[in-house]
Structures are given as structure tokens and as C-alpha cells.
Amino acid sequence: MLYGAIEAGGTKMVCAIGDENGKIYEQISIPTVTPDETMPKIIEYFKDKDIKAIGIACFGPIDLDKNSETYGFITSTPKTAWKNFDIVGCVKNALGIPVGFDTDVNGSLLGEITWGCAKGLTDAVYLTIGTGIGGGVMTNGKLLHGMLHPELGHIIIAKSQKDKGECVCPYHDSCLEGLAAGPSIEKRWGSKAKDLADRQEVWDLEAEYIGTALVNFCMTLSPQKIILGGGVMHQMQLFPLIRKVFKEKMAGYINTKTLENLDEYIVPASLHDDQGIMGAVKLAIDACN
Ligand code: ADP
Ligand code: ZN
User: Fold this and answer.
1) According to DSSP H, which parts of the chain are helical?
2) Among 56, 89, 194, 253, which is least packed, fewest CB within 10 Å?
3) Mean of the pLDDT values across residues 257-280?
4) Beta carbons within 8 Å of 136's beta carbon, 6+ residues apart
5) 203 CA distance to ligand 2 middle (Å)
6) Residue 161 and residue 260: Cα distance in Å, rounded?
7) What is the mean pLDDT of residues 177-200?
8) Rounded to the nearest whole angstrom, what is the distance from the C-alpha of residue 59 to the centroid of ligand 1?
């Protein structure tokens, strides 16, 4: 059985065909321009494929409340052409098959839970650190939506006294995304993050922010594992630094067996940057049930 998958991002829409084992047979990338220009290309791609359902893991904010009139819409996004766009309705009307829908980060988490490093777990957090910071959460075996969906990148954390830079979030004076996403690193240090690989102070500060945030997520959500993905986390030297900050700031308060081995608790994404599109396949599979 084949399923369609869309990983809808602010710069590109990755469209793929996969199966019930998460195997991806083919994929293409379509630039995210406007709905009028982009959606017909997506529909054209899927039109003649023999797919049973389609899953969309989407940038947001989005409306995930099935009882809402605007369920399946991209809502208050800063990408103005996509504001209040009914992406689920558009795909459903054109293809006439079930459509699964969730946030991009819940999609990545679902990929890891189904086929990756968090296989079989019921409680986990997936955090992406790239152009922005976003997080997907599963609790008690269900992807967390709540009132809207979590926005883990915008938790308020204190700016470090060592930080000569500034929080670049247009909404908050001192939030995780504004202090630790790629654009904030670039503004603070004056170079692309990947060109700063050998600057220890860059990654010490970055680890302090991420490690602090992970303690907060551990305290509030009690995940069995925390997975870190996104462009910035390609700097693998961050992992031991983050674990060290996590241990220090946790200060022994939680003493579970799981936290004894932080190398297995705070881990990189495991599906070679396919976690999002594979998660979208699982959203499609689940849309049939
Ligand atoms: P997006 O968040 O736009 O989907 P990415 O996850 O690739 O895309 O994140 C892009 C951000 O990550 C940019 O700010 C970029 O500078 C940073 N980045 C990309 N690759 C690396 C790398 N190898 N090392 C450090 N930072 C990186
Ligand atoms: Zn913010």
C-alpha cells in the first residue's frame, strides 16, 4: 500500500511516496511561494500516484482542532500569502482521499517514534534548532495538541550574563528561539553558524541555552527521550556540552534510571533528515484508521 507525504516548510514543500514500513520510494521538492502557485504543483505530483491517503506535517501556527471551522488551516503565520489558507481542504478536495495533518515537529517526532530512535516510547520530545526553534511532544502515546499546539521555541529563558548579543525574537525579550536559533547565532557572532565550528565560546553559550530549555521540558513533560534535530544540531560537539549543562541544572532533582545515561536520553535525530517526511507517511497511515 502506498501513501503520500508532504513536509510543508516555509521555503520548500517536500512531497514523497512511501509505504507502511516508512520506506520512501521517491520524493521531490517544490518551492513554497504562494498557495496559487505552489499547491497546483503538489496536486499534479500526487494526482496519478496510487496512494491511499496523504499526510501533511506543516509549518505553523496551524489549526489542529477537528471541531473548529478552520481545522486544517495554516493560521497566523508570518508568511502572509499562506495566512488563513485551508491546506487540508485544498488537498482533500483535489485528491479525494483521507488527509492526516499535524505540525512539522510533531511529524518528525512521529517518524522517530515509529521508525527511529524513540521506537516504542510513549513520551518524547523532538526539538528542531534551525532557522527557528520548534518542538513536537508525545505524551501518553498521543501527539500533544492541547489548546493549539506546543510552541517550545518560545519558552522564556534568562539571557546569559556572558551573552553580548541580543534576543532576535520580534515577540519576546528573552526566549529560546530568539537566543539560540541559527539567525541569533549569526547575529551575535557575525558569521554563519557552520563557519563557527571551532569557536568554543559559541557552542558553550548555545549549550547553556539548549541545556536549560531541556531541563524545563524534562520537568514539565517528563519525556522518556529528547531528540534534537535541525541545521544547528549538525554541530555534533554540542551534544556532550548540552548533556553537561542539563546535568548541572537538573542538580540531581530527578533521579530516574533513564537519566543515569544522558547519552541515550538526549540524542540526535536518527533518520538522516527523513524523520519529517517519514512522520508524514505515518500521519497518512493513521488517517485511514
Ligand atoms: P530550517 O530551519 O529553515 O528548516 P535548517 O534546519 O537547515 O532549516 O536550519 C537552518 C539554520 O541552521 C540556519 O540558521 C543555518 O545557519 C543553520 N545551520 C545549517 N547547517 C548548519 C551546520 N552544519 N552547522 C551549524 N548551523 C547550521
Ligand atoms: Zn519568542
Assistant:
1) 35-47, 87-95, 104-115, 176-180, 182-189, 200-221, 238-250, 262-265, 275-287
2) 253
3) 98
4) 103, 104, 105, 106, 107, 108, 109, 110, 125, 126, 143, 150
5) 21
6) 30
7) 98
8) 16
Please give the pLDDT value at position 77. 83
Cell of 129: 534548532
Output the furthest CA–CA distance in the chain (Å, rounded). 57
Amino acid at site 262: L
Distance 177 CA to ligand 1 centre (A): 13
Residue 83 has pLDDT above 90, yes or no: yes
Predicted structure pTM score: 0.97
- The grid coordinates of residue 224 equal 522518556
- Give me 51's grid cell: 496512494
Q: Which residues contact 70 (CB under 8 A, 6 or more apart)?
A: 63, 84, 86
Q: Which ligand is nearest to the CA of 170?
A: 2
Give the Å distance between the CA of 231 and the centre of ligand 1: 3
Give the CA distances from residue 131 to residues 20, 115, 185, 229, 263, in Å, rounded to whole numbers and listed in that order: 31, 26, 10, 12, 26
What is the model's pLDDT at position 206?
A: 98
- CA-closest residue to ligand 1 atom 8: 130
Residue with cell string 563557519: 195
Q: Cell 516555509, residue?
A: 10
pLDDT in tens, 192-228: 999 999 999 999 999 999 999 999 999 999 999 999 9
pLDDT class of 289 with cuts at 50, 70, 90 = confident
Task: State if residue 12 touches ligand 1 by the CB under 6 angstroms criterion.
Answer: no
Residues in CB range of 54: below 8 A, 6 or more apart: 3, 4, 5, 6, 46, 91, 95, 97, 98, 99, 100, 284, 287
Cβ–ligand 1 distance for 89 under 6 Å, the answer no
Q: What is the DSSP string of 238-265?
A: HHHHHHHHHHHHHTT----SGGG-HHHH
